[in-house]
Design goal:
The complex is a heterodimer of chains A (201) and B (128). Chain A is α/β, with parallel strands linked by helices. Chain A has one domain (16-194): P-loop containing nucleotide triphosphate hydrolases (Rossmann fold), CATH 3.40.50. Chain A is built from 5 helices and 7 strands. In chain A, α1 crosses α5. Chain A is globular, with a radius of gyration of 19 Å. In chain B, strands 2-1-3 form a 3-stranded antiparallel sheet. Chain B is elongated and about 45 Å long. In chain B, 43% of the residues are buried. The chains are: A alpha/beta (201), B mainly alpha (128). Chains A and B meet through β1, β2, β3, β4 and α5 of A and α3, α4, β3 and α5 of B.
Chain lengths: 201, 128
């Protein structure tokens, strides 16, 4: 690092590229559990203070027109070699925080919508949001102990999902299961953005 | 250091004051960074000679510089020093202006069409 110039060119220092994946779903659907099961660090919590219409930056006269909201988010990290770092964010479940999703969804690789079959409707706002925003997403049905098992087609029907959108079962507590969920999402995002997989695969 | 940058409030930012000083006091009332977007996953790393320039900094900025000896995201910095991400953004932009950190913006949505990225991420996930 000694050769790094400490002026504005310092931005040239080789840092990994960060990629974000969102984990959405209703309250108690297992968002933080999923983040924790695949993260290499204990999930951390950060508070984001959001300002809407924050135009007059240092101008106090603009304060009256601004509205700020503070929301907490849980996140984890997966290091992918030297080049990439994956950050997983558990988004707030409440629909009233849609404006936070906008900030979060900007530049996101994609989203996992966790569905809890006991409260399937809780994930509707997340689905609506990502569909509208055209963020690649998959649905992962978190299989809670004691919950009635639906088959995936039933869930797909219940959620009126487009046939291209993957629906998978998962156990958010298990690392292997969380890994599979993420792989399914990344493959789906790749198909959505780059078209069908090339023949070399 | 920019001429507009004064530190009249440094004495307010003691360890004991942490709990009662509202985050925007640390930023002298500013809610937006001087430049840059500072996404939650923008990475920052301390640059320049170790410990240099840290003397005149607020404790929070010193803590950020120390924590960023290894690259850290805005979200990690916020969690580590226990301040809202919005406050951390402003402090990071000051540190960037002072040449004490370098940053790496994340992939933009248009960069998401890079096949190499997906292959690397998939390989990395499968190897977990």
């Amino acid at each position: 690092m000694d050769s790094v110039r400490s002026d504005r060119d310092a931005g040239r220092v080789t840092l990994p590229k960060a990629i974000k994946i969102l984990v959405a779903g209703g309250f108690g659907a297992g968002k933080t559990t999923l983040v924790g099961s695949v993260s290499e660090i204990e999930p951390l919590r950060t508070e984001e203070t959001l300002t809407h219409q924050g135009i007059g930056i240092d101008d106090l006269s603009g304060v009256e027109g601004k509205k700020t909201t503070t929301v907490a988010m849980d996140f984890g990290r997966i290091t992918i070699g030297d080049d990439y770092r994956l950050y997983l964010f558990g988004t707030p479940g409440q629909e009233r925080f849609w404006f936070l999703w906008d900030e979060l969804a900007l530049g996101a690789l994609g989203a996992v919508v966790l569905a809890d079959t006991r409260r399937l409707a809780d994930c509707f706002p997340s689905l609506d949001y990502f569909e509208r925003r055209e963020t690649p997403f998959i649905v992962a049905v978190n299989c809670f102990d004691g919950a009635r098992r639906y088959d995936l087609d039933e869930v797909r029907l219940g959620l009126t999902l487009h046939e291209d959108i993957p629906v998978v079962m998962c156990d958010a507590r298990r690392r292997e299961s969380g890994k599979e969920v993420l792989i399914t999402l990344v493959e789906h995002a790749m198909r959505m953005r780059l078209g069908p997989a090339p023949s070399s695969r | 250091m920019p001429a507009s940058d004064e530190h009249p409030d440094t004495q307010w930012v003691g360890e004991a004051a942490g709990a009662i000083v509202r985050p925007y006091v640390l930023t002298r009332g500013r809610t937006e960074p001087t430049r840059g977007r500072f996404d939650l996953i923008t990475l920052a790393v301390a640059v320049g000679p170790a410990h240099a320039g840290a003397g005149g900094l607020d404790p929070e900025c010193q803590a950020i510089v120390r924590f960023c000896r290894r690259p850290q995201s805005v979200a990690e910095i916020a969690a580590h020093i226990n301040l809202p991400a919005g406050t951390v953004r402003v402090l990071l932009s000051d540190l960037l202006d002072q040449g004490l950190i370098a940053t790496q913006e994340p992939h933009s949505e248009t960069d998401m069409h890079d096949e190499k990225l997906y292959k690397a991420v998939l390989d990395g996930l499968r190897a977990l």
